[in-house]
Amino acid sequence: MKIWKLALAAGAGLALSASTASAEKLTFTLNWVAGGDHAPYFYAQKMGWYKDAGVDVTFETGRGSAASAQKVAAGASQLGLSDMAGVLLFRGKGLDLVGLMNVYANSPQGLYWLKSSGIKSVKDLAGKKIGNPAGDGARTMWPALAKKVGIDPNSVTWVNIDANAKLGALKAHTIDATTSFFNIHHVFARELGSDMGFLAWKDDGVNPYGNSIIANGAWLKGNRDQAAKFIKVTQKAFHDCAVTPEPCVKALVEANSGLLYDNELTNWHLVSILMNDETSRTVALGWHDDKRMADDYKLVDEYLHMEKPYDIKTAYTNEFLDKNVKMPPIHPPKLY
């Protein structure tokens, strides 16, 4: 009996080793350093869902949406997280990128300034300095917002600063404005108080899909099974984190030193607002709507000009999404 049990245990160990060895290794490049918006990935990883599905994922720190898109296009990463409007523009430059799952159904882009500086709206930024990282997706889409509000996109000066230096530079008046995603709006509101000037880009008519999970097109053609496994797990993780965010944020903080649980939980609540629209609630969480994608293509082409026109339907696929997984009702606390 003991020999049989030992043999069974050894066999189970060999099977586990074989399963781990056969797991497909994937690199996923984040749009930036890990934060509340990335909680579902680390939750799924902690729960072992990716490995159970047969994929071994390494999450890599990013340096902005534009930078992550370029890295995926170059094949340095198979998958990544990037602003979808920027992805559409890059495809027009010949980069082979395909959207697999939408995360931000609403554009997260925002502009921040100090009211005491005399700036009242985006129009007042002409001749001013905007600071953000060089690879930030906001720079890619800035011409669309500038032209929407009626100023020359080239009338501002871009200053390269690290994301963590934005608030300090704004307070020190070394820059006049900065950009940031809505999911850290609470940080700006807390630090700037009543002196905070803010515009959500979507409120001025620039509301393309925000961050989406993207794949290298050439890799995707030969690895649809691996992409399907990754998306299935990730879609479930985003759903479960929208329902019960606390264990997801805990997993994020455990995996990334320096993060504060309460701050990232608030971050996540803001993310859930960005994820929430009619399509995510009624069709599927992560779904790219055909009409809206066509409209986004037109917006990018009108204001940024596609170098090489293409069929928008080649820029994304919904085939890996489970239509039974929808965005649940959310009731975030008052955050700002």
CATH-scheme architecture of the largest domain? 3-Layer(aba) Sandwich
Distance between the termini: 65 Å
Task: Give the strand content.
Answer: 15-25%
Domain count, please report it.
2
Instruction: Please summarize the sheet with the most strands.
Output: 5 strands, mixed
Q: Helical stretch count?
A: 14
Low-confidence regions: 1-21
Strand arrangement within the widest β-sheet reads 2-1-3-10-4
- Rounded to an integer in angstroms, the radius of gyration calculated over CA atoms is 21 Å
CATH homology superfamily name of the largest domain: Periplasmic binding protein-like II
Structure notes:
This protein is an alpha/beta fold. The chain folds into two domains: 22-106 and 208-314, 3-Layer(aba) Sandwich (D-Maltodextrin-Binding Protein, domain 2), CATH 3.40.190; 109-204, Periplasmic binding protein-like II (D-Maltodextrin-Binding Protein, domain 2, 3-Layer(aba) Sandwich). Helix content is 45%, strand content 16%. It is built from 14 helices and ten strands. Helix 6 (137-149) links the parallel strand 6 (129-132) and strand 7.
SSE topology sketch:
Elements: H1 2-22, E1 24-29, H2 39-46, H3 49-53, E2 55-60, H4 65-73, E3 79-83, H5 84-92, E4 97-102, E5 109-114, E6 129-132, H6 137-149, E7 157-160, H7 166-171, E8 177-181, H8 185-192, E9 196-200, E10 211-216, H9 217-222, H10 224-243, H11 246-255, H12 261-275, H13 278-282, H14 290-304
Parallel strand pairs: 1-2, 1-3, 6-7, 6-8
Antiparallel strand pairs: 3-10, 4-10, 5-8, 5-9
